[in-house]
Design brief:
This protein is mainly alpha-helical and 297 residues long. It has one domain. The protein has 14 helices and no strands. The protein has helices spanning 3-26, 32-50, 58-81, 86-92, 96-107, 114-132, 141-166, 173-178, 184-194, 197-205, 209-234, 239-242, 249-260, 267-296. α1 crosses α13 (249-260) and α2 runs antiparallel to α3 (58-81). The longest helix has 30 residues, at 267-296. The chain is globular and about 70 Å long. The two termini are 29 Å apart.
């Protein structure tokens, strides 16, 4: 990458990592379902002005939106309300890469390589360590489980994206934007039945500058800006060059959460974090390492 494009990559890492702190702030003013619905409504209204509708059949857009947008963030936002710290959420959510690999084997009949199996085992052990660590009262089992559900929903969205690409349909920023018209519907329906009309009205009438700033960051910077720059880099460099940048997201998420939210990570959980990062790195770079080792021998 050129220095200029590397700076763009770092901007993406920061935007997506800091995103979890902003979500935590947003959940102080809005319920999980209202935050999700408002976020995607803002993206849809603003983004559809600048991006054309993709040449993708509605059934695929619907599947994509319900898994990647509604499922992922309904579980994530609810998990953070029920005891998942923002920093750990930024890490655990990256397990989507491992869920994607597993789902691809069963749903797309892709072949998994030995180093990928090892990567899954290492990362899974790290997630287990984080999940069973009892020396951090700020994280609950329910919050952890819901965040894993969010990661699996993200993975299903990835599988949907792969299937769309195989069929020759658009799977770019245009799809991301126009798919955002769908999730506000289930989000607001859930808000009505889970929160009640009084809470919804209270959320809407008590929105202040902090809420508007949160929605602006989540929709404009983290989504439109982040995915727009991501698509820009992916169009100019091999996926193997750009994809590893996501490994920096939990680093930013954990650091910013510790500094701004005063979140504490126990020693046991740090061990789990290192194992997860090792598994993610092996999954990302394992093919290159194996190729170099083969050439060296």
């Amino acid at each position: 990458m050129t220095p200029k494009h590397m700076l763009l990559g770092l901007a993406i890492i920061f935007a997506w990592g800091f995103n979890f702190v902003v979500i935590r702030w947003g959940l102080d003013d809005l319920t999980p379902m209202m935050l999700g619905g408002m976020r995607f409504l803002v993206i849809a209204v603003i983004g559809s002005v600048f991006f054309a509708r993709p040449n993708t059949p509605f059934k695929w857009i619907l599947t994509y939106a319900l898994s990647l947008n509604f499922g992922q963030f309904a579980f994530l936002f609810t998990g953070m309300v029920f005891g998942m710290p923002a920093g750990l959420a930024s890490l655990v959510l990256q397990s989507q890469a491992l869920f994607t690999l597993i789902f691809a084997v069963f749903l797309l009949k892709e072949v998994v390589r030995p180093y990928q199996i090892l990567a899954i085992a290492i990362a899974a052990s790290g997630l287990s360590v984080i999940g069973i660590a009892g020396d951090n009262a700020s994280m609950t089992v329910l919050g952890f489980a819901l965040t894993l559900a969010a990661a699996s929903s993200w993975a299903l969205g990835n599988i949907t994206t792969k299937a769309m690409i195989q069929k020759g349909y658009d799977a770019n920023i245009n799809l991301i934007v126009w798919a955002c018209w769908i999730p506000p519907v289930p989000f607001f329906i859930c808000a009505y039945f889970v929160d009640g009309s009084d809470v919804i009205w209270s959320n809407l009438t008590n929105m202040g500058w902090k809420t508007f700033a949160t929605l602006a960051y989540l929709s404009i910077f983290a989504t439109l800006g982040g995915y727009g720059l991501w698509s820009f880099l992916m169009s100019r460099y091999p996926a193997g060059t750009v994809a590893p940048l996501t490994l920096g997201v939990p680093v930013v998420g954990l650091t910013s959460s510790a500094l701004l939210l005063n979140e504490q990570i126990s020693q046991t959980q740090w061990l789990g974090i290192l194992l997860v990062l090792l598994g993610l790195m092996l999954n990302t770079f394992g093919g290159r390492w194996l190729m170099r080792l083969t050439k060296a021998t």
